[in-house]
Amino acid sequence: MATYKNINGFPIQYLESDPANPVLGQVWFNSTSKTLKGAGAGTVAGATWASGGNVNTARVFFGSAGSQTSSVIFGGNTGPATGIVESYNGSSWTEIADLNTARNALAGFGDSNTSALAFGGHPDIAVTELWNGSTWTEVNDLNTARGYQASCGIVTAGLSIAGDVPNSAVVENFNGTSWTEVGDLNTARRQLGGTGTSTSAIAFGGYTTAHVAIAETWNGSSWTEVGDLNVVRQDVRGSGGSNTDALAIGGLGPAYLALTEHWDGSSWTEVADMATARAQGGGSGTTTAGLYSSGYAGSSNLANTEEFTAPETATVSFTVS
After folding, report:
1. Domains in the chain, number
2. Helix or strand or coil: residue 59?
3. Residue 28 and residue 114 share a domain
4. Which of 1, 37, 74, 208 sees the fewest Cβ atoms within 10 Å?
5. CATH no. for residue 224?
6. b/e per residue, 231-257, with b = 16+ CB within 10 A?
7. Residue range of the domain that includes 89
C-alpha cells in the first residue's frame, strides 16, 4: 500500500503547533490538538489591506485600469477637471502623458499600465481614448455621452455600464474598435460599481433617488438582478474577474465606508475592511490582489493607496467521513 512518504518522499511532520508559513500541499499532525492538518489554497476570507504608494495628485471621479502591480489612473476632479495620468508599478506612482481631453466623472478599463481605455465624463462627454503605454489616441466615441458610469474588461472587450445625470440604464460594449449598445441594466442609476469581463460582469450599488444596494449580473446577453449588497452605497468601486467572483469596495452610504464585500456568485460577505473609509476613488485588480487609490473622505481628496491581498495558503483540518 502506498504511503504519504512513498508518494511525497518525506513523512508527515509531527508538530506541537501549526507552522507559521506552510507551503501549499504541506501536511502535518498537530500533537496539541491531535488533528491532521494541511496547507490549502488561500481564500478571500483571509485577505488583508496594506498600504501602497501615495498618488502624486489626489483626486476623485477618475478612471482606473490594470492590476495590483501594473495599474493606471486618469482624469478626474482635483477642483477643476483634470487630464493628469499616473502609472503604478506595485510600489509607487509616476506621472505620465496626460489625456487629450481633461474631464471629470469618466470611466475606464484595461489589463495593465500600458493598455487602457478612458471614456465618457460629465457633463455629456462621449470621447474615448486608447493608451498604449506611451501616448493617448482618440478612437471611436461612445454612442451615448455620459459620466458616472461603471466599467469592466480589457481594451479589446469591455463594458460601459449605466451612469449619467439623470440616471441611465444604457450599456455599451467595446470590441477594440467601436462601441455597440447591448442589453440595458434593469435599474437605471449612476455612481455605481462594476467589475468582471465583457461576457461575465456584475454591477452593484449606485444612486437612483437615494443610495441603493441593488446588484445585477451580466452573462454576455442580459442582466439579472441578484442578491443585494449588505450595505446601501453609491460611489463604490469594484475589483474582480467575473459575475461569480467580485469585490465591492468603499463608497458613500450612511457615511463614508471602509467596507469591503465579496460576491461568490450567490451572496455578499463582508471581508477585511480598508484602513481608510472613502468613496469616489479608483478600484482595479482581482479578488485576491486588488488595489484602491485616492478618493474622498468628507473633507479633502486623499492620496493614499491600499492593496488587498489574499494569503497564498490557508490551514485546513482533515476529517474522516
Report:
1. 2
2. coil
3. no
4. 1
5. 2.120.10.80
6. bbbbbbbbbbbbbebbbbbbbbbeebb
7. 44-309
SS3 assignment, position 219: coil
260 has pLDDT over 60: yes
Average predicted confidence (pLDDT) for the chain: 93
Q: What is the pLDDT of residue 283?
A: 98
- Please state whether the peptide bond connecting residue 123 to the residue before it is cis, i.e. omega within 30 degrees of 0: yes
Mean pLDDT computed over 150-163: 98
Contact of 126 with 145, CB cutoff 8 Å: yes
Report pTM: 0.89
Domain-located, residue 26: yes
251, three cell numbers: 463608497
Q: Give pLDDT tens digits for 9-67.
A: 557 887 788 788 787 777 877 888 888 766 666 689 899 999 999 999 999 999 999 99
The H or E element spanning position 142 is none
204: three-class secondary structure by DSSP: strand
CB 241 within 8 A of CB 221: no
321 within a domain of the structure (yes/no): no
Distance between CA atoms of 255 and 232, rounded to whole angstroms?
10
SS3 97: coil
**Grid coordinates in use for 100?**
487629450
The alpha carbon of residue 7 and the mean position of all alpha carbons in its chain are separated, in whole angstroms, by 41
Half-sphere exposure of 77 toward its Cβ, with a 13 Å CA cutoff?
Answer: 17
Residues 80 and 146 in one domain: yes
Number of Cβ within 10 Å of residue 106's Cβ equals 31
Q: Which residue has the cell 467595446?
A: 174
